[in-house]
Amino acid sequence: MDKLFIVNTEVNSVELRDATSLTQLAHLPVRAMPHEVAVDPERGLGYVTISYEDGFYNHYEHAAHVLEVISVDGLRHLRTIDLSPHWAPHGIELSPDFRTALITCESNGGELIALDLETDEVIAVVPVGAPGPHWLALTPDGGKAFTANKEEPFVTVVDVESMTVTGRIQTPHGTEGIAVSPDGSQLFVASQQSPHLYVVDAVTDRIDATLTLEDGPGAVTVTPDGSRVVFTSFNFTVWTDNPVLSQGYVQTLDVSSRELGPRIPVGRFPLNVTTSADSTTAYVSNYKDDTVSIVDLREMAVVTTAPVGEGPHGIVHLGAPTKD
User: Is 323 exposed, middle or buried (0-12, 13-18, 19+ CB in 10 A)?
Assistant: First the structure.
């Protein structure tokens, strides 16, 4: 059975759902304000970043500094990793061998840390030059990381082996969602405060194309077959204390032709998106509607929208085990 691992920020929980029916299979309370999750499918482990003790980005009193480790088989809490003195962890990616986690943190002016998942110790740190590193993307070989920086006009490029900054990709309006193609050749970046999607050569770190959209993009992913970029539109471009959150959308970009697909209405504030292993289905977490939408990428239509926990944020598709 294919499953979804969903992080519910507003009710401090994670849950497993059937990826077809969205029926809840398991539920587990966690610390306050969980945000993102990365999954090690070989060991069946989920790593959940706890970003703040209250509030949200730029609107909180106390930052958090932990990573929760959870068994994705039935949801069991295994341990808590203290990342101190690093705080406000957000984006997380696992190395190809699943032994290291790369995590963006707001601490010390903005940094990327490398965490040894065998010892639970931070083994390397690099300042990214931006106070709000948010999501990040990692090339399939694990050699290069890119951090999306909400408040600075560039994406930071990091050589992972040496944990040094090797460049900046100029993005004038800050950046939000970010994803690398499965072959490692292209990077797709959502502009944070303008209606643009950047297509970047992930080898040279140069922008190949800037696509103009109807409104600002949000979360970004690439289908496992590499054929399409799937991204959401939050339908607001500047975060305020009380943003007007109207209808959100999901849209695709054909990687080969660079043609945009139709905008498909989903819920309000579609904060994250993941896709199935066979690249036919997208799953969108609608933060302000407390729902998840299932989108058929062949028909470009919403198949199902169902309520989940309050404030669904991080979402990962867990494919059924492959039989020999």
Answer: exposed
Backbone φ/ψ region at 95: left (φ over 0), alpha (ψ -120 to 50), beta = beta
Residue 109, C-beta contacts closer than 8 angstroms, at least 6 positions apart: 127, 129, 130, 131
* Mean pLDDT, range 2-28, rounded to an integer: 97
- For 170, the 3-state DSSP assignment is strand
| Spacing of C-alpha 122 from chain mean position | 21
Condensed to tens digits (0 to 9), the pLDDT of residues 95-125 reads 999 999 999 999 999 999 999 999 999 999 9
Q: For residues 176 and 318, give the distance between their C-alpha atoms in angstroms, rounded to a whole number.
A: 24
| Cβ neighbourhood burial of 89 (10 Å; 0-12, 13-18, 19+) | buried
| DSSP string covering 122-168 | EEEEEE-S-S-EEEEEE-TTS-EEEEEETTSSEEEEEETTTTEEEEE
For residue 85, whether the previous peptide bond is cis, meaning omega lies within 30 degrees of 0, is yes
* Token pair of 54 as six digits: 């209250």
Cα angle 55, 198, 183; round to 5: 100
317: its two tokens: 């598709």
- What is the sign, positive or negative, of the torsion defined by CA atoms of 111, 122, 46, 296? positive
In sequence order, what are the residues at sequence separation of 6 or more whose Cβ sits closer than 8 angstroms to the Cβ of residue 299? none
Q: Does residue 182 have a pLDDT over 70?
A: yes
Other beta carbons within 10 angstroms of residue 78's beta carbon come to 10
Q: Tens of pLDDT along 201-222?
A: 999 999 999 999 998 899 999 9
How far apart, in whole angstroms, are the C-alpha atoms of residue 79 and residue 86? Answer: 18
Distance CA 298, CA 280 (A): 6
Asked if 319 contacts 44 with a C-beta cutoff of 8 angstroms, the reply is no
The CA distance from 65 to 63, in Å, is 7
